[in-house]
Specification:
The protein has one domain. By secondary structure, the protein is an alpha+beta fold. The protein has 2 helices and 4 strands.
Length: about 80
């Protein structure tokens, strides 16, 4: 799971919603069957994730691993190779 704002954007792309407070930010990502909420706080010049949860929640904790996996943005596809003629 990502640990800071930069790795969060790299994994999930642009959030559907960001709520900015003086000392924190909430980032929400929406999927087809779930939503994920990441709570970020300033630390060492960047925002770090201190808490995350999904809706629906996981069976054994606040996050559902299947939900988080479904939200991951696929890596850019490699250029297609041209067929040999």
């Amino acid at each position: 799971m990502p640990t800071d704002a930069q790795s969060l954007r790299a994994a999930y792309g642009t959030p559907a919603f960001i709520r900015r407070e003086p000392d924190s930010e909430l980032w929400r990502y929406d999927g087809m069957t779930c939503s994920a909420f990441f709570f970020l706080y300033p630390e060492g010049g960047t925002y770090r994730i201190r808490h995350a949860e999904t809706s629906p929640r996981g069976r054994e904790g606040p996050t559902d691993p299947d939900c988080l996996r479904s939200l991951v943005v696929p890596a850019a596809a490699a250029p297609a190779s041209r067929p040999m003629l």
